[in-house]
Amino acid sequence: MRVVVDFDLCESNAVCMNIVPEVFEVREDDFLYVLQEEPGEEFRAQVTEAVARCPKQAITLEG
Amino acid sequence: MDRVVVVGASLAGMRAAETLRAEGFAGTLTVVGEEAGPPYDRPPLSKQVLTGQWDADRIALPSGAKPELELTWERGVAAIGLDLAAGHVSLADGRAVPFDGLVIATGAAARWIPGTRAIPGVFTLRTLDDALAIRAALGAGVQRVVVVGAGFIGAEVAASCRARGVAVTMVEPLPQPLSRVLGDVIGRVVAEVHVEHGVDLRLGVGVEAIEAGDHGVERVRLSDGNVIAADLVVVGIGVIPNTGWLEGSGLTLDDGVLCDETTLAAPGVVAAGDVARWPNPLFGEVMRVEHWEHAIDMGAHAARRLLAWAASPSDPALDMAYGPVPWFWSDQYDRKLQLAGRVRPDDELAVVAGSIEDRRFTALYGRNGRVVGAFAMNMPARVVKYRQAIAAGLTWDDALQG
Ligand SMILES: Cc1cc2nc3c(=O)[nH]c(=O)nc-3n(C[C@H](O)[C@H](O)[C@H](O)COP(=O)(O)OP(=O)(O)OC[C@H]3O[C@@H](n4cnc5c(N)ncnc54)[C@H](O)[C@@H]3O)c2cc1C
Ligand code: SF4
């Protein structure tokens, strides 16, 4: 499972961070950081939820 | 429950369908949608689609192309009636679709100024077809646009037209744009942003008449006596929930489908998204929310509620009371706006980070000692944190001290 963010689309609104803070973090500089590009299977449900709820459809999940 | 019908093939409906499958519903799942094309995302319509940056293929909803959902599609046909006793939905082509469980997700339609719908060059913006028609008109040499209503849709249309270099006049009867959702102080900031980008903003005036000549719309007559020449008029004066097909069904219709606090509208019937009204226990208010993220969230909740009903029809499922903190964003020019919460114009307001002068700030709204809303302009990250804090009952004093 690989998390890919299109940073041209992302607007750092931290919706994803709210769902999986272990994987996504928007810092004080207002940029999104992907903390784990290949998170463990235990995060699949939450990452899938973040994909669905990203208002900019900026997140894709490969594998 | 062997057969579920979802009426409305857009954000809330598709999310409900996905959730039903994800939660193990294995029966027949029929999705009825009036629009003929595949489901799509609406927010880009007033943004990237209008400016011409994106085409229709960029805004397809992923859920519309997932064979694993095993949906039975009824696309391009409207539901025109609901018979609760017989358990079926009637379609415009005369057929009836039987169900054991029903998800109502028919959203809302743009409100028109009476008598203007037939005038060439006058548009509302709700659907992809609307957006493509406005875009085509803009591409065909329109010079002067009048936007009626400075709500979110109007404000975004104004921004997108300015991005294309077209002259824009925006008319709003309230004292500030967006003042009903953001209050006058923040509304004034939004007004200034539009004026800085060259919008001729007319506040506190209504529209008397939209007048046409031989080739369509020519001018807009305002309540203050002014007359504005227009090649194109976009009317953004709010929406009306799509409940016409539910008249006489026995469901309570009151500016939307009225649900209980768990999103159940009747036994075996749930509603979600722009069409649904329900008592939000967190705010102690019966509300209907017209935001993207809400349609996603409530669509999933309603699907789970329907499954819980199927498992135990007599259980009121009070643990499934639905109490979200509404959240939305809006993009206008290079400003990104976000609001979490439910704001009233007379709430207290305090800027807690950044500054209004810089057009980059976070502000909180308070009522009765609690924080009820958080707004940000170009400070995206904090609003989500405040959203959680509002859900947890953050007090006004704590927020201003911390
Ligand atoms: C131009 C535009 C820009 C927006 N921008 C933002 C934004 O930036 N941020 C934000 O938070 N929100 C935004 N929104 C709001 C957001 O898109 C809506 O809240 C969301 O689409 C609601 O989803 P829904 O599924 O409840 O309803 P809808 O999207 O309205 O879908 C309802 C569907 O039901 C179908 N339908 C209606 N009646 C029937 C019937 N009788 N039978 C069968 N089908 C029927 C309709 O054709 C439609 O496809 C925007 C909306 C628009 C129009
Ligand atoms: S939810 Fe989407 S837009 Fe928001 S921060 Fe995450 S990736 Fe970016």
Q: How would you characterize this protein structure?
A:
Chain A has helices at 15-19, 44-53, and strands spanning 2-5, 24-26, 32-34, 59-62. Chain A has 63 residues and is α+β, with helices and mostly antiparallel strands. Chain A has a single domain, classed as Alpha-Beta Plaits, CATH 3.30.70.20. The longest helix of chain A is centred in the last third of the chain and has 10 residues, at 44-53. By secondary structure, chain B is α/β, with parallel strands linked by helices. Chain B has 3 domains: 3-109 and 240-320, FAD/NAD(P)-binding domain, CATH 3.50.50; 112-235, FAD/NAD(P)-binding domain (3-Layer(bba) Sandwich), CATH 3.50.50.60; 334-401, Enolase-like, domain 1 (2-Layer Sandwich). Chain B is built from 8 helices and 27 strands. In chain B, strand 2 (28-33), helix 2 and strand 3 form a beta-alpha-beta unit. In chain B, helix 1 packs across helix 6 (292-311). Chain B is globular and about 60 Å long. The termini of chain B are far apart. The model of chain B has no long low-confidence stretch (mean pLDDT 96). Chain A binds chain B through residues 11-15, 17-18, 26-28, 30, 52-53, 55, 57, and chain B through 15, 18, 41, 43, 62, 292-293, 296-297, 327, 329, 331, 336, 338, 379-381, 383-385, 387-388. Bound molecules: flavin-adenine dinucleotide and iron/sulfur cluster. The site of flavin-adenine dinucleotide has 37 residues of chain B, from helix 1, strand 2, helix 6 and strand 23.
Summarize the entry for a quick read.
The complex is a heterodimer of chains A (63) and B (402). Chain A is α+β, with helices and mostly antiparallel strands and 63 residues long.
